[in-house]
Specification:
Number of domains: 1
Strand content: 15-25%
Largest sheet: 2 strands, antiparallel
Number of helices: 0
Shape: elongated
Helix content: under 10%
């Protein structure tokens, strides 16, 4: 489970009387955090097979979280063994 900490302040809300509302928050792209792995790219590694950008090189000397993890220069890709992997053949 992921935990997110967002430093919201009064200006992030629409305040009417005692009711505070806000627009939807995108946890993967907001003013505090940008998850570049949600972007598609024709360059870089194609580890996931769908051109999701995960980095430009595999770091063979980096330590990993465990077996099934591939460290790249933009972070570590961890494959969840409990999920089915779909391979696309063209």
């Amino acid at each position: 489970m992921k935990t997110y900490f967002l430093a919201l302040n009064k200006s992030d809300f629409n305040i009417v009387g005692n009711v505070w509302t806000s627009n939807a928050l995108d946890l993967y792209s907001n003013k505090f955090y940008n998850n570049y792995s949600t972007k598609r790219a024709s360059t870089g590694l194609n580890i996931l097979g769908d051109h999701t950008f995960v980095g430009t090189e595999v770091l063979s000397s980096a330590s990993t979280l465990g077996e099934g993890a591939t460290p790249t220069n933009y972070g570590e890709i961890v494959f969840d063994d409990s999920q089915r992997r779909l391979l696309l053949f063209q």
